[in-house]
Amino acid sequence: MIDIDIKIRLKKEMMHYCFSTSTDRSVVFGPSGSGKTTLLKAIAGFYKPLEGRITVNNKFFFDKKLGINIPIYKRKLGYLPQQYTLFPNMNIKDNILYGVNKKKYGKTLEKLNFITERLQIKHKLQSAPHLLSEGQQKRAALARIFMMNPNILLLDEPFTALDEPIRECLRGFVIELSQELKIPVLFVSHSIEDSFSLGKEIIVINNGKVVEYGNLNKVYNIPKYTETAGLLDFKNIFLIETFNEKKITLSNLKQNDRLVMNHNRKFEERCTHLSIRPEKVHILNKENNNGENIFSGIIDAVHPRGSYFKVNIRIGSFLLISYVDEKQVNRYSLYADKKVSVKVNSGDLVFCREI
């Protein structure tokens, strides 16, 4: 679907994007300021790369060596920036039809009715933009780019600042409409939940470069690199000192401390670190150090995080972070300085390496 290998200079910063996708829905994931929006603008044609190539659906948008740089208006893209705008002096219908070729008026109206009905704003077509809620305005902006029948949808944080029920509804509409109209989607997000709801593939970006890309589930659950693991919320990342087919020894060089764990995963010699998701660090009801990968420790701190609690557990000089729900915090009476046992299943260990 998309094949990119480009370099862009913005001010003094050099950005390098290199990846390819093979599915119709991909997400560009990364922290704020990592260069996600710059990538979309380069695909759209707002930024000219210093070198490289951009192809979408086997169509060349840019190729430095071949001297190709298709103008923005000829790329036929549906680009929805974070700060989308509706014309205040036009009603919703005219906003949606703005820029649409109206020569085939009958088919245009048929498509308009289809899209606005699916987005549940058909009854708002004669309304002024300011009379609509933010969620309805976002739907009108989405309807406008769907009407253009673009080669691809480029959505930059499309669900920011919307309540969860509206976010969930819009995610469903984007998936359904893009599938029915056969339009591939590339969207930017720093939300794991949005990424899983919409994406099939993920492109992880940080500091203006692609860190890792591929199947979303595979990258999310078994990242290759420590940088990817950190960006995808693997809070527990430790240096591996030694390993064999059944055991690994973790090292804390500053404290000259070690921790041994059993594992059942395939280990590559290039791997240098162990990563564990915080939700995979299980706090046991009673102190117990008998069993595989069960360790005694002391709770360092308990921090509320809305829908869950972050519990820091000190095991020697190693700090393990666990995410638990409120019921478990209350049931186990978890508090700072309490002695606890934690368990990490051998199948939940993920090996990765530094780039």
Helix content: 25-40%
Question: How far is the first residue's CA from the last residue's CA?
Answer: 26 Å
Shape: globular
Structural class category:
alpha+beta
Contiguous runs where pLDDT drops below 50 for at least 5 residues: none
How confident overall, as mean pLDDT? 91
How many H/I helices? 10
Rg computed from alpha carbons, rounded to a whole number of angstroms: 25 Å
Largest sheet strand order: 7-8-9-3-10-11
Major sheet attributes: 6 strands, mixed
- Beta-strand percentage range: 25-35%
Number of separate strands: 21
Verbal overview:
By secondary structure, this protein is α+β, with helices and mostly antiparallel strands. The protein contains ten helices and 21 strands. A hairpin with a 2-residue loop joins strand 4 and strand 5. Helix 4 runs antiparallel to helix 5 and helix 5 runs parallel beside helix 6.
What is this structure, in a nutshell?
With 355 residues, the chain is an alpha+beta fold.
